[in-house]
């Protein structure tokens, strides 16, 4: 789309929306949010950029094929579910560090599960959107 | 009249009436562009309702949902505009 306002706004919207999606991802354990909503927001951020600048420019920014994000995310999910076996606890037990980290808050296996969901949702959203935008 | 009474007596009924009026336009709408604008307007009014409820119940997390909603509304309107433009070019 050749609109100067839209292009200028989308340059500033992309990093802001990615930051907000990561904020939602990290907040997700006790408050509304989580991997799915954060992933959707990141997908929408890339979609706005692709509307303004075209698909090729957005593919250059993402660099890797979004199809690779899904297996990586699923692997992280499975590893986070298998992790309690190492300390001989039942499968999918929530393991948490005692002290909260700086800026991130509490870190545990549930956070890694959320990160895996985030990657899967970003990958599938980008694939769906790029396929639809290609055919229009 | 206190603030919460003001919300319940004036603002929520106004938003409700405007939802009904815009929905009539959404059903009647002679052209596709009218329907797209009406849909955008419905989402904007619902963002107003979400904002009122977040003030009434003192929950700031509702505003995040309103922000996400407004983003998706903007995106869908831009996509529809792009689609209509492409269709007229053919």
From TrEMBL, chain A:
User: Could you tell me which Pfam families the record lists for this protein?
Assistant: MnhB
What InterPro entries does this protein's entry cite? CPA3_antiporter_subunitB, MnhB
Task: Give the source's domain of life in one word.
Answer: Bacteria
Query: What lineage is this protein's organism placed in?
Result: Bacteria, Pseudomonadati, Bacteroidota, Cytophagia, Cytophagales
- The residues that cross the membrane are 12-30, 36-55, 67-87, 107-133
Primary localisation category: membrane
Q: Which family does it belong to?
A: Belongs to the CPA3 antiporters (TC 2.A.63) subunit B family.
Keyword field: Cell membrane, Membrane, Transmembrane, Transmembrane helix
Tagged with keyword Glycoprotein? no
User: What's the encoding gene here?
Assistant: mrpB
Q: What is this protein called?
A: Na(+)/H(+) antiporter subunit B
The keyword Lyase belongs to this UniProt entry's keyword annotation: no
Which source organism does the UniProt entry give? Answer: Mongoliitalea lutea
One Gene Ontology CC term in the entry:
plasma membrane
Where does the record place the Na+/H+ antiporter MnhB subunit-related protein domain?
5-126
Membrane protein topology class: Multi-pass membrane protein
Places the protein is found: Cell membrane
Automatic annotation (TrEMBL), chain B:
Membrane topology is: Multi-pass membrane protein
Per UniProt, subcellular location reads as: Cell membrane
Q: What is its main location?
A: membrane
According to the UniProt entry, its GO molecular function terms are: sodium:proton antiporter activity
Membrane-spanning parts:
6-24, 36-56, 62-84
Q: Which UniProt keywords apply?
A: Antiport, Cell membrane, Ion transport, Membrane, Transmembrane, Transmembrane helix, Transport
User: A Gene Ontology CC term for this entry?
Assistant: plasma membrane
One short Pfam name that applies is MrpF_PhaF
* Domain of life where this protein originates: Bacteria
Q: Which family does it belong to?
A: Belongs to the CPA3 antiporters (TC 2.A.63) subunit F family.
Q: What is this protein called?
A: Cation:proton antiporter
This protein's species is Mongoliitalea lutea
């Amino acid at each position: 789309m050749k609109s100067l306002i839209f292009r200028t706004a989308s340059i500033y919207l992309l990093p802001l929306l990615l930051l907000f999606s990561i904020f939602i991802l990290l907040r997700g354990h006790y408050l509304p949010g989580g991997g799915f909503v954060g992933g959707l927001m990141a997908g929408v951020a890339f979609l706005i950029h692709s509307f303004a600048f075209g698909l090729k420019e957005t593919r250059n920014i993402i660099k890797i094929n979004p199809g690779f994000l899904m297996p990586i995310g699923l692997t992280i999910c499975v590893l986070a579910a298998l992790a309690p076996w190492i300390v001989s606890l039942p499968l999918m037990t929530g393991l948490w560090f005692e002290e909260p980290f700086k800026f991130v808050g509490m870190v545990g296996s549930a956070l890694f599960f959320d990160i895996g969901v985030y990657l899967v949702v970003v990958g599938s959203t980008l694939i769906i959107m790029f396929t639809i935008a290609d055919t229009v | 009249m206190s603030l919460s009474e003001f919300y319940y007596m004036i603002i929520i009924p106004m938003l409700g009436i405007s939802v009904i009026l815009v929905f009539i336009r959404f059903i009647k709408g002679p052209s596709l562009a009218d329907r797209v604008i009406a849909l955008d307007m419905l989402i904007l009014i619902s963002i107003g309702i979400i904002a009122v409820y977040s003030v009434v119940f003192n929950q700031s997390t509702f505003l995040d949902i309103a922000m996400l909603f407004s983003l998706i509304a903007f995106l869908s309107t831009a996509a529809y505009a792009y689609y209509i433009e492409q269709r007229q070019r053919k």
